[in-house]
Amino acid sequence: MTRALALDGLALLLACIVTAAPLPRAWIEDAYANGLFAGMNRAFVPLSNGVPFAVGDVEAIVAVVALVVWWVRTLRATRRSRRRRVAATLLAHTAGFAALGVVLFEVLWGLNYRRAPVVARVDYASARVTPAAVSRFSERIVAILNHDVAAAHAETLDREKLRAAFAPVVARLGDRWDAAVTVPKTTVIEPYYEAAGIGGQYSPFAFETLLNASFLPFEVPRALAHEWSHAAGFTDEGDANYIGTLTCLRSGDPLIRYSGAFWTYGELPVSERKRLHLDPRVIADFNAARARFLRHYQPRIFAMQWQFYDRFLRTNGVRAGIASYDFFLQLLVGTPLDAQGLPVLRVTRTRAPDDARSPT
Q1: What is the pLDDT of residue 352?
Q2: Same-domain check for residues 178 and 43
Q3: Are residues 172 and 269 in the same domain?
Q4: Statement to judge: residues 103 and 154 lie in one domain
Q5: Closest CA to 53 of 214, 201, 185
Q6: Do 109 and 57 have their domain in common?
Q7: Which of 150, 190, 222, 334 is the most buried (most CB within 10 A)?
Q8: Per the structure, how many domains does the chain have?
Q9: Pick from 156, 76, 129: which is nearest to 267 by CA?
């Protein structure tokens, strides 16, 4: 028993080292993100895509059932006078296994949180985010919505077209490998997703993407491209929003382009949304999306979920927490694009200037 408790302590120590040890950013980018993680993505995403159900659901069910059975069988086999001591030992072992889970999370995906953020990679300047520039960008978004609404409703998503628009973006931003994109799946806890307002999730333990099954067709492309960004090793939510939106806006496909504009419109300044006029069909889409969201929305569950996720992001070095979701609009306006619709990179990446740091 002493040896087992020592192993539990070692697991906890290892988890602390893996999560807190300073690692060179160059090593994270070259050896991990473009090395180990890239290899795991290419090896395991196709395997996960070949399974018609959510592998993460199976993993979670097996883990929970195994834990419950282990505790129940052990306590039943223990004399009542010793159960309190045995329960304490079981708790220590459980903490040890949880620590190993943390280590596994870091190795499978979590170390990507230490990559340089997109804002430090692209030629972003806050000085470019002027009222005039925001107005021009807002006009572009509304023009896409009004122009593409009919064509967007006339087709279904071609994931290959989405991938074709996505791959050059992540390549420009630092992925020196062809990311294997995930096939969207639904989860057995879908009711919780809908109640908590969760649109999707990349599962690093299963190398798969879980997407809200109630999404309307025009909501899916940008939501999927956002999750693909995580699968490609970009962990920050604002970065994933930027990559997902830029992917859609540079696409020649009307459904994909419409989806990018659709998700972006709500982030535009209120003054711009009042100034610009939407086609009645676009307004109907926004009403339908709102009704879809509110159908199962539970305010208390929503607040609890996002408070938890805010703490999770801050723990993993995202100083802005869930506020990082919103920074993508500034990135879109303040970063120049080349003729291919790809972001222009910073000439020097050794030290990001003050306006190139993530929001705090």
Answers
A1: 44
A2: no
A3: yes
A4: no
A5: 185
A6: yes
A7: 222
A8: 2
A9: 129
Separation of alpha carbons 167 and 180, rounded Å: 10
Read off the pLDDT of residues 74-124 as tens digits, 9 standing for 90 and up. Answer: 998 888 888 888 899 999 999 999 999 999 999 999 999 999 999 999 999
Q: Which of 113, 135, 168 is the last residue of a domain?
A: 113
Q: How far apart are CA 121 and CA 123, in angstroms?
A: 7
Same domain, 97 and 175: no
192 pLDDT exceeds 90?
A: no
Residues listed for the chain:
360
> Which tokens hold the place of 167?
């791959």
DSSP strand pairing (200-203 vs 208-211): antiparallel
Task: Provide the strand spans (E) within 100-192.
Answer: 184-185
Q: Which residues contact 70 (CB under 8 A, 6 or more apart)?
A: 90
Report CA 60 to chain centroid distance, whole Å.
19
199 and 146 in one domain? yes
Please, which pLDDT band fits residue 306 given cuts at 50, 70 and 90? Answer: low
How confident is the model over 49-69, as a mean pLDDT?
Answer: 94
Whether residues 249 and 306 share a domain: the answer is yes
| 6 pLDDT tier (thresholds 50, 70, 90) | confident
Do 106 and 159 lie in one domain? The reply is no
Domain that holds residue 54: 2-113
Question: Which amino acid, residue 300?
Answer: R
Classified as helix, coil or strand, 200 is strand
Check residues 351 and 190 and name the one with the higher pLDDT: 190
- Note the pLDDT tens digit of each residue in 201-248: 999 999 999 999 999 999 999 999 999 999 999 999 999 999 999 999
